[in-house]
């Protein structure tokens, strides 16, 4: 074997080794990124999860609004990327506890009984105005001492929460997407899909409750979303019980 052939062989071998090392490095990084994503969502390989769907407010029991369907599609893609499976369950048929399977619950308490139960049990510091009659307070959020009114098409709020009930190892999270309108639910799921790595770095495996604002949805749809605040402490602290007004009239 002359020097030219030897150099060619050595070059091919070096290129093959470099390609193999590069492939191994990319595979390692991809798997590490996948494991972190699975840990954040509580979705290991071949695990089961729940997609709890609401109904259109004022509509038939199993009618889901178009934007809520889009939200479910966003979540289904996340679940598939984790190598997990999803079971779609109607809000009034999910009669089970939480923590055994990751749950994604979509819709406000007026159209989703499961969401109403979660807010009552896990986030007692949040109240949502569910009045059916039109009015300035319809759909308003009360979070601690702050109140957030609905401005349809201009400024709409949605709660994005990742909650862990209990400290037992292996407890799966519950994700809540509680918006003032259906389009805000889709905005929250899209925000989660785009920012889950940053949220995982910031919050780790802990619970968090974020208040998001969807800006000018008439023009931008669910794409322009602002983080208003991390409201975790206020959302987990029960609201004070209103003191009934005393009758100041004296008997004559």
Automatic annotation (TrEMBL):
Keyword terms of this UniProt record: Membrane, Transmembrane, Transmembrane helix
Transmembrane segments: 6-29
Name the record gives this protein: Secreted protein
Originating species: Streptomyces olivochromogenes
């Amino acid at each position: 074997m002359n020097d030219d052939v030897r150099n060619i062989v050595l070059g091919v071998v070096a290129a093959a080794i470099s390609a193999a090392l590069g492939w191994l490095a990319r595979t390692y990084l991809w798997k590490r990124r996948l494991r972190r994503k699975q840990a954040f969502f509580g979705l290991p390989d071949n695990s089961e999860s729940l997609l709890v769907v609401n109904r259109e407010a004022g509509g038939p029991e199993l009618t889901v609004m178009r934007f809520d369907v889009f939200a479910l599609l966003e979540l289904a893609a996340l679940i598939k990327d984790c190598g997990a499976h999803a079971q779609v369950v109607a809000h009034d048929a999910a009669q089970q506890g939480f923590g055994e399977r990751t749950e994604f619950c979509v819709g406000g308490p007026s159209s989703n009984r499961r969401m109403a139960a979660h807010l009552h049990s896990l986030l007692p510091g949040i109240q949502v105005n569910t009045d059916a009659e039109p009015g300035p307070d319809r759909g308003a959020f009360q979070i601690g001492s702050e109140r957030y009114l609905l401005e349809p098409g201009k400024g709409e709020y949605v709660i994005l929460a990742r909650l862990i009930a209990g400290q037992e190892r292996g407890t799966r999270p519950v994700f809540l997407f509680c918006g003032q309108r259906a389009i805000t639910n889709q905005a929250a799921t899209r925000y989660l899909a785009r920012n889950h790595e940053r949220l995982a770095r910031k919050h780790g495996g802990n619970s968090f409750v974020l208040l998001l604002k969807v800006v000018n949805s008439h023009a931008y749809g669910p794409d322009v979303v602002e983080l208003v605040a991390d409201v975790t402490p206020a959302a987990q602290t029960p609201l004070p019980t209103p003191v009934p007004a005393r009758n100041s009239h004296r008997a004559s």
